[in-house]
Design brief:
Elements lengths: L4 H23 L2 H22 L9 H26 L2 H23 L5 H7 L4 H9 L4 H29 L6 H19 L7 H25 L1
Protein backbone atom coordinates (compact mmCIF):
# COMPACT_ATOMS: atom_id res chain seq x y z
CA UNK A 1 0.00 0.00 0.00
CA UNK A 2 1.35 3.43 -0.94
CA UNK A 3 2.57 5.84 1.72
CA UNK A 4 0.56 9.03 1.15
CA UNK A 5 2.23 11.16 3.84
CA UNK A 6 4.83 12.58 1.37
CA UNK A 7 1.95 13.59 -0.93
CA UNK A 8 0.36 15.59 1.90
CA UNK A 9 3.77 17.16 2.59
CA UNK A 10 4.03 18.06 -1.11
CA UNK A 11 0.66 19.81 -1.06
CA UNK A 12 1.49 21.77 2.11
CA UNK A 13 4.95 22.74 0.81
CA UNK A 14 3.56 23.77 -2.59
CA UNK A 15 0.86 25.91 -0.98
CA UNK A 16 3.53 27.48 1.23
CA UNK A 17 5.68 28.16 -1.85
CA UNK A 18 2.84 29.95 -3.64
CA UNK A 19 2.14 32.17 -0.61
CA UNK A 20 5.84 32.97 -0.21
CA UNK A 21 6.05 33.91 -3.88
CA UNK A 22 3.00 36.15 -3.49
CA UNK A 23 4.61 37.81 -0.47
CA UNK A 24 7.87 38.34 -2.37
CA UNK A 25 6.08 39.90 -5.33
CA UNK A 26 4.42 42.35 -2.95
CA UNK A 27 7.32 43.12 -0.60
CA UNK A 28 10.47 42.33 -2.66
CA UNK A 29 12.58 41.13 0.30
CA UNK A 30 15.58 38.94 -0.44
CA UNK A 31 14.81 36.43 2.33
CA UNK A 32 11.37 35.87 0.80
CA UNK A 33 12.71 34.79 -2.58
CA UNK A 34 15.28 32.54 -0.84
CA UNK A 35 12.53 30.86 1.19
CA UNK A 36 10.37 30.56 -1.93
CA UNK A 37 13.13 28.61 -3.67
CA UNK A 38 13.74 26.50 -0.55
CA UNK A 39 10.09 25.52 -0.18
CA UNK A 40 9.78 24.80 -3.91
CA UNK A 41 12.69 22.38 -3.50
CA UNK A 42 10.95 20.93 -0.45
CA UNK A 43 7.82 20.30 -2.52
CA UNK A 44 9.87 18.61 -5.28
CA UNK A 45 11.72 16.39 -2.79
CA UNK A 46 8.48 15.35 -1.08
CA UNK A 47 6.89 14.60 -4.45
CA UNK A 48 9.82 12.32 -5.32
CA UNK A 49 9.28 10.52 -2.00
CA UNK A 50 5.67 9.90 -2.95
CA UNK A 51 6.42 8.85 -6.53
CA UNK A 52 8.99 6.34 -5.25
CA UNK A 53 6.15 4.21 -3.85
CA UNK A 54 6.34 0.89 -5.76
CA UNK A 55 2.67 1.09 -6.74
CA UNK A 56 2.90 4.75 -7.87
CA UNK A 57 6.02 5.10 -10.02
CA UNK A 58 8.80 3.32 -8.19
CA UNK A 59 12.33 4.39 -7.41
CA UNK A 60 14.89 4.91 -10.16
CA UNK A 61 18.28 6.53 -10.57
CA UNK A 62 16.76 9.66 -12.08
CA UNK A 63 14.17 9.98 -9.32
CA UNK A 64 16.78 9.58 -6.58
CA UNK A 65 19.01 12.21 -8.21
CA UNK A 66 16.13 14.69 -8.44
CA UNK A 67 15.26 13.95 -4.81
CA UNK A 68 18.78 14.45 -3.49
CA UNK A 69 19.52 17.54 -5.58
CA UNK A 70 16.29 19.08 -4.22
CA UNK A 71 16.40 17.95 -0.60
CA UNK A 72 20.05 18.65 0.18
CA UNK A 73 20.25 22.45 -0.38
CA UNK A 74 16.88 23.51 1.05
CA UNK A 75 17.83 23.64 4.74
CA UNK A 76 20.86 25.77 3.93
CA UNK A 77 18.61 28.13 1.98
CA UNK A 78 16.10 28.36 4.85
CA UNK A 79 18.95 29.17 7.23
CA UNK A 80 20.27 31.75 4.79
CA UNK A 81 16.88 33.45 4.70
CA UNK A 82 16.83 33.66 8.50
CA UNK A 83 20.32 35.15 8.50
CA UNK A 84 19.16 38.08 6.34
CA UNK A 85 16.75 39.00 9.14
CA UNK A 86 19.34 38.89 11.91
CA UNK A 87 22.73 40.14 10.72
CA UNK A 88 24.15 42.81 8.38
CA UNK A 89 23.49 42.02 4.74
CA UNK A 90 27.21 41.59 3.92
CA UNK A 91 27.47 38.69 6.38
CA UNK A 92 24.28 37.13 5.04
CA UNK A 93 25.65 37.49 1.49
CA UNK A 94 28.75 35.52 2.49
CA UNK A 95 26.76 32.62 3.89
CA UNK A 96 24.41 32.62 0.90
CA UNK A 97 27.46 32.46 -1.36
CA UNK A 98 28.72 29.45 0.58
CA UNK A 99 25.31 27.78 0.30
CA UNK A 100 25.24 28.35 -3.46
CA UNK A 101 28.78 26.99 -3.91
CA UNK A 102 28.01 23.88 -1.82
CA UNK A 103 24.73 23.36 -3.69
CA UNK A 104 26.49 23.62 -7.06
CA UNK A 105 29.23 21.24 -5.93
CA UNK A 106 26.56 18.82 -4.75
CA UNK A 107 24.66 19.12 -8.03
CA UNK A 108 27.81 18.28 -10.01
CA UNK A 109 28.48 15.34 -7.69
CA UNK A 110 24.91 14.06 -8.04
CA UNK A 111 24.78 14.39 -11.83
CA UNK A 112 28.19 12.74 -12.31
CA UNK A 113 27.31 9.72 -10.15
CA UNK A 114 26.16 6.53 -11.81
CA UNK A 115 23.47 4.90 -9.69
CA UNK A 116 22.96 1.20 -10.19
CA UNK A 117 19.30 0.44 -10.81
CA UNK A 118 19.88 -2.96 -9.23
CA UNK A 119 21.25 -1.36 -6.06
CA UNK A 120 18.31 1.05 -5.93
CA UNK A 121 15.84 -1.79 -6.40
CA UNK A 122 17.48 -3.70 -3.55
CA UNK A 123 17.41 -0.61 -1.32
CA UNK A 124 13.68 -0.19 -1.80
CA UNK A 125 12.95 -3.75 -0.81
CA UNK A 126 12.92 -2.20 2.66
CA UNK A 127 10.42 0.43 3.79
CA UNK A 128 10.15 3.62 1.74
CA UNK A 129 12.20 5.87 4.10
CA UNK A 130 14.80 3.13 4.56
CA UNK A 131 14.99 2.85 0.79
CA UNK A 132 15.82 6.54 0.51
CA UNK A 133 18.44 6.26 3.22
CA UNK A 134 20.15 3.36 1.47
CA UNK A 135 19.88 5.01 -1.95
CA UNK A 136 21.40 8.27 -0.69
CA UNK A 137 24.30 6.21 0.64
CA UNK A 138 25.13 5.27 -2.96
CA UNK A 139 26.34 8.82 -3.65
CA UNK A 140 30.06 9.51 -3.08
CA UNK A 141 30.81 11.11 0.28
CA UNK A 142 33.19 13.88 -0.77
CA UNK A 143 31.36 15.26 -3.79
CA UNK A 144 27.73 14.75 -2.73
CA UNK A 145 27.06 13.70 0.86
CA UNK A 146 29.60 16.03 2.50
CA UNK A 147 28.12 19.20 0.93
CA UNK A 148 24.69 17.97 1.99
CA UNK A 149 25.84 17.44 5.59
CA UNK A 150 27.38 20.91 5.74
CA UNK A 151 24.25 22.52 4.29
CA UNK A 152 21.95 20.69 6.69
CA UNK A 153 24.00 21.31 9.83
CA UNK A 154 24.67 25.00 9.25
CA UNK A 155 21.22 25.71 7.83
CA UNK A 156 19.50 23.85 10.66
CA UNK A 157 21.46 25.73 13.31
CA UNK A 158 20.61 29.08 11.70
CA UNK A 159 16.94 28.23 11.22
CA UNK A 160 16.36 26.88 14.73
CA UNK A 161 18.78 29.20 16.53
CA UNK A 162 17.64 32.25 14.59
CA UNK A 163 13.99 31.65 15.43
CA UNK A 164 14.85 31.09 19.09
CA UNK A 165 17.01 34.22 19.27
CA UNK A 166 14.33 36.32 17.58
CA UNK A 167 11.71 35.09 20.07
CA UNK A 168 13.95 35.75 23.07
CA UNK A 169 14.71 39.25 21.76
CA UNK A 170 11.02 40.06 21.27
CA UNK A 171 8.52 37.61 22.81
CA UNK A 172 5.66 39.28 20.97
CA UNK A 173 6.95 37.48 17.87
CA UNK A 174 5.33 34.18 18.84
CA UNK A 175 5.50 33.00 15.24
CA UNK A 176 9.12 32.12 15.90
CA UNK A 177 8.04 29.19 18.09
CA UNK A 178 6.42 27.20 15.24
CA UNK A 179 9.29 28.24 12.95
CA UNK A 180 11.72 26.76 15.46
CA UNK A 181 9.64 23.57 15.70
CA UNK A 182 9.51 23.46 11.92
CA UNK A 183 13.28 23.21 11.91
CA UNK A 184 13.48 20.76 14.81
CA UNK A 185 11.09 18.06 13.61
CA UNK A 186 12.67 17.28 10.21
CA UNK A 187 16.13 17.44 11.80
CA UNK A 188 15.05 14.98 14.49
CA UNK A 189 13.45 12.73 11.89
CA UNK A 190 16.66 12.72 9.84
CA UNK A 191 18.70 11.99 12.97
CA UNK A 192 16.48 9.05 13.92
CA UNK A 193 16.64 7.68 10.37
CA UNK A 194 20.33 8.20 9.72
CA UNK A 195 21.86 7.64 13.16
CA UNK A 196 19.36 5.69 15.25
CA UNK A 197 18.18 3.49 12.34
CA UNK A 198 14.52 4.33 13.07
CA UNK A 199 12.60 4.81 9.84
CA UNK A 200 9.10 4.57 11.30
CA UNK A 201 8.40 8.29 11.74
CA UNK A 202 10.67 9.99 9.20
CA UNK A 203 7.88 11.06 6.82
CA UNK A 204 5.62 11.98 9.74
CA UNK A 205 8.27 14.27 11.25
CA UNK A 206 8.90 15.78 7.83
CA UNK A 207 5.19 16.58 7.46
CA UNK A 208 4.91 17.98 11.00
CA UNK A 209 7.93 20.21 10.34
CA UNK A 210 6.38 21.53 7.13
CA UNK A 211 3.10 22.29 8.90
CA UNK A 212 4.91 24.14 11.69
CA UNK A 213 6.86 26.22 9.16
CA UNK A 214 3.63 27.04 7.34
CA UNK A 215 1.92 27.95 10.63
CA UNK A 216 4.84 30.20 11.61
CA UNK A 217 4.63 31.95 8.25
CA UNK A 218 0.87 32.58 8.61
CA UNK A 219 1.38 33.91 12.15
CA UNK A 220 4.18 36.19 10.94
CA UNK A 221 1.92 37.63 8.23
CA UNK A 222 -0.73 38.41 10.85
CA UNK A 223 1.93 39.97 13.10
CA UNK A 224 3.17 42.19 10.28
CA UNK A 225 -0.40 43.20 9.41
CA UNK A 226 -0.95 44.38 13.01
CA UNK A 227 2.37 46.24 13.37
Amino acid sequence: MANYIPLITTIVALTFTILLLWQFLNRRKIHQVIWTIAMALFAIAALMEFLANPDILGASGTLIKIYYASAAPLVGLLGSGVLYLLVPRKIAHIYLGIVIMLALALLVGVLSTHLSEVAISEAFQLSLPEGFREAVGLFPFLTARLPSILLNITGGILLIGGALLSFITDMRKTYNIPLMMGGLFPSLGGFLLGIMDNADIFFEFELIGTIFLFLGFIMSMRYLARN
